Amino acid sequence: MSSSADTQNPSRPMVVVMGVSGSGKSTIGALVANALGVPFVDADGLHPIANIEKMAAGTPLTDEDRWPWLAVVGQVLADASGGVVVACSALRRVYRDAIVAEAPGTVFVHLDGTKAVLTARLEGRSDHFMPPELLDSQLSTLEALDPDERGIVIDIDADVPSIIADAITRVPPLTTTRSAT
Q: What is the reported pTM?
């Protein structure tokens, strides 16, 4: 069902940079936000402490763990009067739908990469609560964007400036079109 609420104001982009752990959501999200002139929020910081402790222990989250967090993510998008870019895994369609329910018109930027690229990135970082062992769980959970979802897919096997250029070229037109829902 389309409504005027489905159409974003291009001066108020609501963007979720999504993907599995190690895809570059935080780095790319912050740079896209800067390029669009809007704030950046890392949804990892919106998780309740119980979720963070669970992930740090190597235990995948359940849907029951995720629903309240996804509602908060959606509210952050909806409440951002000047627009915002949020880094959020948003691995499954139902998770993205939960975000869109709170913030209609949200655009998704899926950072996609091979398991080899993702593993190398995860093994190279030490400042994150998500252990590399959970990558397989995330990859098995990941559902590609459906054709009726407002979003783009970007291959992360490129340099950061190319990824940013791709995103800032392809995201703004999506903020001015109606969703297919």
A: 0.85
